[in-house]
């Protein structure tokens, strides 16, 4: 009988979470680099370059790939012949491992988990508790799959209860365009089919953790219905032309993974969960000999890509007016220098509440002709000005946009993914602009931040309002002052250019 020691189990969980915070899986890097080499869309190719450069920087500096260091999900297969030398329960050991990982002084990870989600939404401050799934199986080992899932991609999870005769392909092709770019493509689509509603969702989540091997399958050819489905969806989803970061291009997904389970004759449950460009997962087995050892990848596994300014326009954002931004065009690359403020959901709600009550914003929060960056950065370590600081999904701020633009004189916003009709109309009305930074390039973006300080709502933690002084921060114009959105125009152009979609997707 194998005996698993408490300290070994906790250390293995903690080490795995640190490991996946800064190491992309090797298969992901290879697949993304292959897509980068083939990409014809300049905007999408630049986004992929930033993700690959960021990934190598994180591997070298051992800092998070993305500022959203995720909600931890753990799948455990516990052998029936395993015994435990432990005083904590298995769930308690998992959560202690999470706590140690996220509070590690050399690589602090962002605490994003909120207790009382329907009420006060209070940050637990150590990213616990994890979401844990346990299964007792034959054998004398403990098999562990650990993932850290970003909120942006998790928010795009989809589920449907189809009729038995309904087409899974048609549902996927209808649904993927509604997901926008908030899940930070290119990534992986995990699809679960069968079982019950909750089983299908679990299958989809587990599918996200499988290795990328679609090119091998293309070479060998399918041998069963699920492999045929994978190939069909891979081709058709990429033919949508959504592209990296939704900027239009040849590659939207690097792979489509499918798991299934027997289901009731009257049902066809189907779940779809995307994994983003910061895909993070690890697998290890404990056999009683000590903690798991995860072998670091070699830096030679990363391509060497040098990003140049190219045709990027350098912009001093400290002295801009509406007239200055009027000629910015969707898809144009800018390098921003100057002072900007940050603000996410919680900060926006507080600001709008104050404005609606006729009160002033806190001292230090002057948005007149300024830019606000939708970000919740990781805490700094060592000599850092700020930790990884990539953008969060901008659509969550759409409902606040009209009020903020009207009552503060804000000139522009920086986030990731598309804006909805409500926000685009407000941007057009107030002649503002919306820019995007690359999701999945948080460490790279943080290197453009020269100074950082909290100026309001410090009790909100990572959601506090910061003042950043930036130098050559790379962004792309997503919505111009006339209301034209690259997320609306570019995918349509590339879908037409690719010209392979045989089904109606509206």
Helix and strand topology:
Blueprint: E1 2-5, H1 6-22, H2 26-38, H3 42-61, E2 71-79, E3 82-85, H4 90-102, E4 114-115, E5 122-123, E6 131-137, E7 142-149, H5 151-154, E8 158-162, H6 168-175, E9 187-194, H7 197-208, H8 214-220, H9 225-238, E10 253-261, E11 268-275, E12 281-286, E13 313-316, H10 322-325, E14 333-342, H11 345-356, E15 371-373, H12 398-408, E16 412-415, H13 421-429, E17 433-436, H14 442-446, E18 449-456, E19 465-479, H15 486-498
Parallel strand pairs: 1-3, 2-6, 9-10, 13-14, 14-15, 15-16, 16-17
Antiparallel strand pairs: 2-7, 4-5, 7-12, 8-11, 9-11, 14-19, 17-19, 18-19
Helix pairs in contact: 1-4, 2-3, 11-12, 12-13
